[in-house]
Amino acid sequence: MGVTSAEQRRYVPVAEHGLIGDLRTVALVGSDGTIDWYCCPAFDAPSVFASILDTERGGCFELSAAVPARTKQFYFPDTNVLITRFFTGDGVGEVQDFMPVTGEGFETERHRLIRRVVCVRGSLPFRTRVAPRFDYGARPHTVRLTGDVAVFDSGELALALTATVPLEPDGPDVRAEFKLAEGESAVFALDQVGGPVSPRGCARTEAQRQFAATVAYWRRWLAASRYRGRWREMVHRSALTLKLLTYAPTGAIVAAPTTSLPEQLGGERNWDYRYVWVRDAAFCVYALLRLGFTGEAKAFMGFVTRHISPGDGRASGPLQIMYGIDGRTDLHERTLDHLEGHQGSAPVRVGNAAASQLQLDIYGALIDSIYLSDKWAEPVSSDQWNDVCALVDWVCAHWDQPDEGIWETRGGRKNFLYSRLMCWVAIERGIRMANRRGLPADLLRWRECRDTIYRRIMERGWSARRRAFVQYEDGDVLDAAVLMMPLCKFIAPTDPKWLATLDALTEELVSDSLVYRYDPQASPDGLRGDEGTFSICSFWYVEALTRAGRLDEARLAFEKMLTYANHLGLYAEEISHTGEQQGNFPQAFTHLALISAAVNLDRALG
């Protein structure tokens, strides 16, 4: 795993992290025991610890053995409680990191991060340094130390650190060094304070009680899973990760909990993913429904109903492609030039300018998730059906135009096949719902439009020269997004045209089971630099092979993909040429695609 020592802390690779959270925000914990990403009090709030983006200016919460140690990380079984173990010549210790889920027997206003240190064998010296840097390292703060309580106050936000060992001031930070013998423990708790919440210690007994309650919460949630097939641990870890990416107050689901982790070291493909992409969240609902989790689908449908109004009349259509976790639509993008970026990969961005793009595929993703939620979770209400009808009517009127597409290219609009495909899905699922429930709809117009899109894709999305369906109409560039064609039941998975496409994709975009989105040289996307293989496409590929009946290939590709997970079963967005995780971490898209591929492959294998 890793080695910790007294030397100055270097960047921990993206994959060398675990994730904890409380359904409002998360923290990334490095394999060296350092929390180097934490936004408070919500996913998209400014960071308090961000040394993953700048080791000097970002701020961090270090907690580790004070002597050289080997480290290993694992999750307490069937939970999101993270354990980091330290192995030294004199003993073994561990740090247990967790965030109690608000409302589970805890004060509803108190948002708390608990770090419990235990010596399990021999004796071990530990040290900690708590160095918050508010507002992405741009806002100074004061620190007030009283006994075992330190209050860090930036004016906008105040955090209280309480400890069961003596704390010492160190400029704007606090430190502690302590030694534990076998069976002894120490507790550090970090609370957001202000208003009704005042600093309060976290005694060892309270930490033990909150640990037990947090474990019980996650196990109770996971017990709702109906999945009993192969690769169950990986599937359940993916489900637990998707749950961590949900924002409980609104039902929102973020694409990833980080910003600006680079898709290529030294490149400019660094984006802020701490928002609700309609597409990603809708796919998440599908994956969780497949496993038997209906609560998240109901909560997300509530978010959709409250915040997504089909009558807004925006140029980008009635839906934005993404929203804030509170439903806000203004996600102004800016760069933080004072941060150097992960391993020097600037720029660091907050906000996302792609929010104003036209991406027609989101209508299919959303209406498909509404269709599945109606079928498996909770029937749509009459008001929701009115919204669905308004969306389908809009798609019927506006599908035939170029857009930026699923990959959010900044290289100009095109008539992307995937956008056409998902417009077909939007209308087709609307028709299915109307027929199954006997709901009123303009079915004559919907069917006519659906069939027009189908013929258009078959005629202009197919390249006779490439013998494949291609990225955009009348072109000849291949794109892994077309792997969705059989997955969304547009084309039979054994159709000769589809099998020819699958062979062409395998030859040009697949590398040892890993799949590239497209070739940026053949289809310039307006950005400098290369990128790695896209993990969601790799799992789509497994599912396409499965549906085509090529089970041996599918199983081998899936098993190979599992070897690229990190030590905890987590994935970022991409995988580099050398097998490293790249991009924001962990990525909802990758984990939901893993679930879908595993469920379908397991069923096909029998």
Which structural category fits the helices and strands?
A: alpha+beta
Instruction: Choose one word for the global shape.
Output: globular
Provide the low-confidence segments as ranges.
2-8
Radius of gyration: 25 Å
- Work out the strand percent: 15-25%
Termini, distance in Å? 36 Å
Q: Percent of residues in helical segments?
A: 25-40%
Please provide the count of β strands: 29
Average predicted local confidence, pLDDT: 94
User: Total number of helical segments?
Assistant: 14
Characterize the main sheet: 12 strands, antiparallel
Write the layout of secondary structure elements.
Blueprint: E1 2-4, E2 17-21, E3 26-30, E4 35-39, E5 47-49, E6 60-65, E7 69-75, E8 82-87, E9 91-98, E10 112-131, H1 134-137, E11 142-146, E12 149-153, E13 158-163, E14 168-170, E15 173-181, E16 185-193, H2 204-222, H3 232-244, E17 246-247, E18 252-253, E19 276-277, H4 278-291, H5 295-307, E20 322-323, E21 334-335, E22 349-350, H6 361-376, H7 382-398, H8 417-437, H9 443-460, E23 462-463, E24 468-469, H10 484-487, H11 496-509, E25 510-511, E26 514-515, E27 533-534, H12 535-547, H13 551-563, E28 574-575, E29 581-582, H14 588-605
Antiparallel strand pairs: 1-7, 2-3, 3-4, 4-5, 6-10, 7-8, 8-9, 9-10, 10-15, 10-16, 11-12, 12-13, 13-16, 14-15, 17-18, 19-20, 21-22, 23-24, 25-26, 27-28, 28-29
Helix pairs in contact: 3-14, 4-6, 4-14, 6-8, 7-8, 8-9, 12-13, 12-14, 13-14
